[in-house]
Amino acid sequence: MRRQIVLVTIILCLSGIAAASLASCSRLAFHPDLERELIELASLDAKEMPRYLQALDREDSIGAFYKDERTRAATLEFFASVTGSEPVAKFILDNAERYEVPASLAFALAYEESKFSVSAVNKNADSIDRGLFQLNSKSFPKLSVQEFYDPETNAKYGLSHLQHCLRSGGNEVAALAMYNAGNGRVDRGATPRRTLDYVYRILKYQENIDSLFAAKVAAAPRRAWPRLPLADASLGAGAGAAR
Question: What is the pLDDT, as a whole number, of residue 50?
Answer without folding.
Answer: 80
